[in-house]
Amino acid sequence: MRWWLRLIVNGSLAPGAGGDLITYEGWGALARPQSLRPLVDSVDAYNDWEAIQRGTREQAIVMEAERLLAGPWPPLD
Q: Is residue 43 part of a domain?
């Protein structure tokens, strides 16, 4: 999952796609830690049709990826 976070932050992986990978492949594997909840919520908002209509949605995912990379690993509840 850290690899996906790094790819999101450095621009090699689109935030929406990377966020979906983390949400659907990584979050459950880590027993859904609360420290990942802000990222999961950002991904949910990214995928929301109304958010799509408003424009930029990717920055929140990138910011959460940066926050997670700066903290302890694995993320603590």
A: yes
